[in-house]
Task: inverse folding
């Protein structure tokens, strides 16, 4: 690992050259804090193509990349089942690791990854892009200010038509499940960001439309520690066609975080007040990469801490238990994370 104290730019390796990695490559181009210097993928042609576009070096393995490159940090964008082995290999080399969601497909694996990071004294956390969306962070501040009074209900909706029949995301051996662990990991982290610790969850599967071995539509209800009831709608097969993906309902008003506009209206207001211009994936990824780079440089804390990442895994685990048993399931307490 190179000495980041001597440079304001953190040198990153990118593991995995799939679709999500393409978006991150664009974020690195925009970032003043992070430089992409290497890409590794077992599909060498994919690594070569991305490296050529990004102006960096390609490798067919993590070992090859570590042998030839001096890295400060790495971004892991491989399928979830591979995360533990890939992350531990990087950590053993003294490389700080930002790992795409879901962190792992079991809480036991997530705990082992966090323990390995502590053992090797490196930073480690889960990538959770929605925490870095400006409208989301501003909405959290508005809610925390008491603008809406007491929060009573929270809603998150991630639904859309996506053909998953030939994607690894729908292979439970690789992904750990279906839409619950895929889109639902984002949902859980967003919900915890607004509401704090979640105490229990109930999950239900909708009708399967695609010919998959996993759920393609699901709904979760959660109870937060403050008594707020949250609901989460997830689907790869239907779209609710809503202009917003987060709704917060309080005793004194309503706030909506939307794809193209975010706004709130307090009780008695004649009109909505617009506070944001919507979701921009590349801005979110850039802010996420910048935060991790600044944390590596010791300049600011991680916005998503390892305990947040582990909590998200535990909530999803409880959701799958609920799905199997048809009942509310308790979620491990925060102090156990």
Result:
């Amino acid at each position: 690992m190179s000495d980041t104290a001597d440079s304001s730019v953190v040198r990153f390796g990118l593991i995995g050259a799939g679709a999500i990695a393409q978006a991150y490559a664009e974020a690195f181009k925009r970032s003043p804090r992070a430089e992409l210097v290497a890409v590794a993928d077992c599909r060498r042609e994919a690594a070569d193509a991305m490296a050529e576009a990004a102006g960096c070096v390609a490798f067919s393995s993590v070992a090859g990349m570590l042998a030839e490159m001096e890295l400060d940090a790495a971004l892991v964008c491989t399928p979830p089942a591979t995360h533990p082995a890939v992350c531990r290999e990087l950590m053993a080399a003294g490389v700080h690791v930002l790992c795409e969601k879901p962190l792992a497909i079991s809480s036991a694996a997530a705990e082992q990854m966090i323990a390995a990071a502590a053992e090797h004294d490196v930073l480690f956390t889960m990538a959770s892009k929605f925490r870095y969306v400006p409208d989301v962070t501003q909405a959290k501040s508005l809610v925390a200010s008491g603008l809406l009074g007491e929060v009573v209900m929270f809603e998150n909706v991630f639904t859309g038509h996506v053909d998953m029949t030939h994607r690894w995301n729908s292979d439970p051996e690789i992904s750990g499940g279906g839409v619950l662990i895929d889109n639902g990991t984002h949902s859980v982290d967003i919900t915890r960001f607004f509401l704090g610790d979640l105490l229990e969850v109930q999950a239900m599967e909708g009708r399967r439309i695609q010919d998959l071995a996993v759920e393609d539509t699901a709904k979760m209800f959660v109870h937060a520690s403050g008594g707020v009831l949250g609901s989460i709608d997830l689907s790869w097969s239907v779209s609710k066609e809503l202009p917003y993906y987060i709704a917060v309902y309080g005793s004194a008003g309503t706030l909506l975080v939307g794809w193209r506009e975010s706004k709130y209206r307090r009780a008695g207001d004649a009109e909505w007040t617009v506070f944001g211009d919507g979701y921009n994936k590349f801005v979110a990824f850039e802010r996420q990469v910048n935060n991790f780079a600044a944390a590596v440089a010791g300049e600011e804390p991680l916005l998503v801490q390892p305990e947040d990442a582990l909590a998200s895994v535990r909530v999803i685990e409880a959701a799958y238990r609920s799905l199997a048993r048809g009942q509310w399931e308790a979620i491990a307490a925060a102090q156990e994370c």
Remarks:
- The CA atoms of residues 41 and 47 lie 5 Å apart.
- The chain is about 35% helix and 25% strand.
- The radius of gyration is 20 Å.
- Residues 151-250+312-336 form a domain with the Dihydrodipicolinate Reductase; domain 2 fold (CATH 3.30.360.10).
